[in-house]
Amino acid sequence: MVSLQTIKPIDDRTLEQFGFGWHTDSDQSKYVANELVVVSDAEAEAYYEAVNELYDMYATAAQHVIDNNLFFDLGIPFNLIEPIKKSWENDVHWHLYGRFDLAGGIGGAPIKLIEFNADTPTALFETAILQWALLKHNGMDEERQFNNLYEAISDNFRRLVTLFDDPELFEKHYDGWKILFSSISGNIEEEQTVRLLQQMAIDAGFESGFEPLGGVKFDDEGIYDANEEPYEYWFKLYPWEDIAIEEPELATQLATIMNNQKAIILNPAYTLLFQSKGMMKILCDLFPDSPYLLKTSFEPLKGVTHVEKRMFGREGANIRIMDTSGAVIEENDGPYGNFKPIYQEYVEFPKDVDGNSYQAGVFFAYEACGLGFRRGGKILGNMSKFVGHVLR
Amino acid sequence: MKHFTSAKHIMMGTMGLVVLSALSGCQSAPEEQASTEQAEGQNKFLVVEQLSSGKYVIVEEMPTTGPSRAIIKETDENGTVHERVMSEAEMKELADQEYKKMEAGQSELNAEPQGEGMGLAGTILAAAGGALLGNMIGNALMNNKNVQRHQDASNRSAYHRSASGMNNSATSNTQKKSYFGNSASKSTTSSSSFGG
Q1: Min distance A187 CA to chain B CA atoms (Å)
Q2: How far is B38 from chain A (nearest CA, A)?
Q3: Contacting B residues, span 73-102, partner chain A, CB-CB under 8 Å
Q4: How far is B108 from B123, CA to CA, in rounded Å?
Q5: Percent residues over pLDDT 90 in chain B
Q6: pLDDT tens-digit profile of A102-148?
């Protein structure tokens, strides 16, 4: 059973003052819960250990995919194979951050990997800033939260320059290289997520700029803002597979820019390998004894309740839960039906007294660095709520 | 053994300060520019800590695109640490007072430092005088050897702004292209379309 503590919410106007404008969902319900999930230190420690181990497993699996040319199995668009290989070969293509979605971990249930959002994870503002603000607002001890996300990502920005050296050496090596941050226009959540990342980069010591995706300019020599100012790094909160499919000419252009070593794109192209849910089948092949993995296959599973997902489905869309006979128990429609399916053993999420399900989201930036929860039904979709946590 | 690290506002840099300001009722959304006459990026976010000697040192210093702000951590006679947020206006007033004392030869900044740290006004003036009082005073402070020595003795922050920004402009004559013609603004809702 999930243990909750009721807290005093922060009013909408104050939330907006510090940049959190997406506090109300389209059905007018509040997006942020008035409760915190109570987590023990041992449970937080277990999340930390699990996610660090899972990331190492993903890195091993990515090498396996590249060595054995398994891109087709994972549904990787052909025009991104070269950028993926290129980015994997050189450490300067540093993975800034990702978020592991996990079942279990609280109330005695074992931690199980649901998926890895490695390319364009959101819930960053909620996890790094909002849930900490809730502790402050309620006069609680701010240190009782597994959350050093802000500092961890700032340090990871410094590692773009220092790589595996101490990020404290950043200032010694930094030579004014600039990062351009981009999101699509007209979406508050995505723009504020990107602006938060930009602030983390500024705090790290980087020069930076912001340009909506449509205003960014490209040629073989690099990536520019609308004023044709060149940037050495480009962070795009836009999925790699959408670039490949909807903007194939840009995919080719970005490959050229990478080959010419004119700019580095974040998150790197290889994060699309991690993002593919097909990787969880590869993980099962390589790590059959891992306690963190649910059985995953490219074929429907026989004799167990299981879930059909699409390789690049997001936010609970195009998900079907099937019972042991293969009959559909629950399903969500969505726009990802053209991607290949994978099948994963079903696991119950931890529940509260009202029967709501909780999925843990643990961020990774060089190491596991921040925990938050989503609350909803059997399938956690776009209308699920954010729930912060407190350590006890 | 505990390996994970906990939340602390001191680790949340500029955003931590923005949130604390909003929670305490001071308006300071990151977009709001307080001092438009100053060059962008000059404004400072400072964390100032009181030493057991009663003097103050800078423990964090970062540039911010919002207004200048400071968190002041002071220890009372019972050893309890109190934190308060100082607005740009308050910082400016302190820095201005100290600069006037300096001009009158009555500031500790006029002499060489005696050990680590100094008074609160002097600490703020030395660290952010340019951002608070304008470039002319900033330059005068930069060129004052005693102020520089005080700055070294009262600033523990790792941050030193890189002066060597890349100023190479785009010289390529090739045609630059934009993309995302159809998708760049397709979403008008507040909810993320692909956050996962």
Answers
A1: 5
A2: 17
A3: none
A4: 10
A5: 7
A6: 999 998 999 999 999 999 998 999 999 999 999 999 999 999 999 99
CA separation for the pair A96, A302 (Å, rounded): 38
Between CA B181 and CA B185 the distance in angstroms is 8
Q: Do A144 and A391 contact (CB within 8 A), yes or no? A: yes
Cα–Cα distance between B60 and B45 in angstroms, integer? 8
Question: Do the chains contact at B158 and A171, CB–CB below 8 Å?
Answer: yes
Neighbours of A52 (CB within 10 A): 16
**Of A120, A146, A189, which is closest to B4 when you measure between CB atoms?**
A146
Tell me: pLDDT of A211 over 90: yes
CB-closest option in A14, A21, A185 to B184: A185
What is the count of residue pairs from A and B with beta carbons less than 8 Å apart?
239
Assess contact for A384 and A375: CB atoms under 8 A: yes
Cβ of A314 within 8 Å of Cβ of B188? The answer is: no
Task: Report chain B residues whose CB lies below 8 A from the CB of A314.
Answer: 194-196
**B98-110 mean pLDDT:** 89
Residues of A in contact with B19 (CB under 8 A): 18, 129, 132-133, 136
Residues B184, B186, B191, B193: is their CA dihedral positive or negative? negative
Residues ≥6 apart with Cβ < 8 Å to A336 = A310, A312, A313, A314, A317, A318
Tokens at A133, concatenated: 């603000």
Q: Which of A23, A99, A175, A203 to mutate to test the interface with B (most CBs of B within 10 A)?
A: A203
Q: Do residue B176 and residue A14 have CB atoms under 8 angstroms apart?
A: no
Compute the distance between CA of residue A336 and CA of residue A313 in angstroms, rounded to an integer: 5
SS (H, E, C) chain B: CCCCCECCHHHHHHHHHHHHHHHCCCCCCCCCCCCCCCCCCCCEEEEEEECCCCCEEEEEEEECCCCCEEEEEEECCCCCEEEEEECHHHHHHHHHHHHHHHHCCCCHHHCCCCCCCECHHHHHHHHHHHHHHCHHHHHHHHCCHHHHHHHHHHECCCCCCCCCCCCCCCCCCCCCEECCCCCCCCCCCCCCCCCC
Return the residue in B21, B179, B187 with the most chain A beta carbons within 10 A, the one to mutate for interface testing. B179
Contact (CB<8Å) B176/A219: yes
DSSP A147: B
d(CA B90, CA B88): 6
A-chain CB neighbours of B177 within 8 Å are 217-219, 253
3-class state of residue A192 by DSSP: helix
Question: Which residues of chain A form beta strands (DSSP E)?
Answer: 4-6, 32-39, 98-103, 112-117, 178-182, 207-210, 217-219, 222-224, 230-231, 233-236, 264-266, 296-297, 306-310, 319-322, 328-332, 341-345, 357-365, 367-376, 385-391
pLDDT at B23: 87
Residues on chain B touching A388 (C-beta within 8 angstroms): none
ipTM above 0.90, yes or no: no
| A22 to B16: CB separation less than 8 angstroms, yes or no | no
CB within 8 Å: A142 and B9: yes
A318-323 LR contacts (CB < 8 Å, sep 24+): A319/A379, A321/A346, A321/A378, A321/A379
